[in-house]
Write a structure and sequence with these properties.
Number of helices: 12
CATH architecture: Alpha-Beta Barrel
Largest sheet: 8 strands, parallel, barrel
Strand order of the largest sheet: 1-2-3-6-7-8-9-10
Order of helices and strands: HEHHEHHEEEHEHEHEHEHEHH
Distance between the termini: 45 Å
Bound molecules: 1,3-dihydroxyacetonephosphate
CATH superfamily: Aldolase class I
Number of domains: 1
Length: 335
């Protein structure tokens, strides 16, 4: 696969003022979200919900791509238009979550490693035929007493690198996501230290596995205080520490970095991204690949009247895309 094509796709994913909407919740995860708003988690409800999101008018003004779950990539609109075609026609790159989720790491209580490498070459070939242009793999790193261990970090980096190399072989841009969870009462300095080690390990593994950085996107977690830490870092501190961590670990040849929202509320996710982009110029575009911080408001509205509220739910999706798109340029103002 030519690096030019991969690089072109990667650059399009982080085009100025654009980011990614992550709607790749597994059936188990979307069930939790649906349960929260009293919606039954049927295949048809999942399809209708994703159609509402992807059908948002003018979404491509601020959204370059969407990450789908396996089931969604095979689904279509009510009128029978496959979602991948709907997106391609709208100028939105179809992406696919290809990992099979985290499982307990044997011998390391409290730590997990992401599975999904077996058969991945064949799955990627099929996903490419179905229209996927990029793929996501999420590793999960927990912070706690004596964790993360070096073994856990290495095992996850190794899996990320093997997945990324397979993606590039299939002509698909890997979006490598090592998520350092916000759960815990640790302070922001601990989050910084862990994130730094994790990113160092990841880029070393990518190098060892001959992954072309020019055709790779990093999906990063921000450096933040643990959710239960009594001393919560403010917007400027989060922006400054996240940037410092990224500058010291992420090669400049990477076409771009997008952030996950990880449980931050809508306002914080946007404000943090905006603040970082105001610190420019930066070595790479910094944008978003938010799940909850793109969808939460829309899900609440949609759940109240699945058909009647489609347009109003879509307005909030568009509004979140616009706000985050402005934040990707450092041009967002609150309210
Ligand atoms: P959140 O933005 O809700 O963390 O989801 C992004 C994502 O894709 C996590 O893998």
């Amino acid at each position: 696969m030519s690096i030019d094509l991969l690089a072109e796709t990667a650059q399009a994913m982080v085009a100025p003022g654009k980011g990614i909407i992550a709607i790749d919740e597994s059936n188990a995860t979307i069930k939790k979200r649906f349960d929260g708003v009293g919606i039954e988690c049927t295949e048809e409800n999942r399809r209708a919900y994703r159609e509402m999101l992807l059908g948002t008018p003018n979404l491509s003004e601020h959204i370059s791509g969407a990450i789908l779950y396996d089931e969604t990539l095979r689904q279509a609109t009510r009128e029978g238009i496959p979602f991948a075609r709907l997106m391609a026609d709208a100028g939105i790159l179809p992406g696919i979550k290809v990992d099979k989720g985290p499982v307990a790491l044997a011998g390391f209580p409290g730590e997990v490693v992401t599975e999904g490498l077996d058969g991945l070459r064949e799955r990627l070939r099929e996903y490419a035929l179905l229209g996927a242009r990029f793929a996501k793999w999420r590793a999960v790193i927990n912070i706690g007493d004596d964790i993360p261990s070096g073994t856990c970090i290495e095992a996850n980096s190794h899996a990320l690198a093997r997945y990324a190399a397979l993606c590039q072989e299939a002509g698909i841009v890997p979006m490598v996501e090592p998520e350092v969870l916000m759960d815990g009462d640790h302070d922001i300095d601990i989050c910084y230290e862990v994130t730094e080690v994790v990113l160092r390990s990841l880029f070393s593994a990518l190098y060892d596995h001959n992954v072309m950085l020019e055709g790779t996107i990093l999906k990063a977690s921000m450096v933040v205080s643990g959710k239960d830490c009594p001393d919560q870092a403010g917007v400027d501190e989060v922006a400054e520490m996240t940037l410092r961590c990224l500058r010291s670990t992420v090669p400049a040849s990477l076409p771009g970095i997008v952030f996950l929202s990880g449980g931050q509320n809508d306002h914080d996710a946007t404000a943090h991204l905006n603040a970082m982009n105001q610190y420019g110029p930066l070595p790479w575009p910094l944008s978003f690949s938010y799940g909850r911080a793109m969808q939460s408001a829309a899900l609440k509205l949609w759940s109240k009247d699945l058909v009647g509220n489609v347009a109003v739910a879509q307005q909030t999706v568009y509004g979140r895309a616009r706000d985050n798109g402005l934040a990707a340029l450092g041009q967002w103002t609150a309210g």
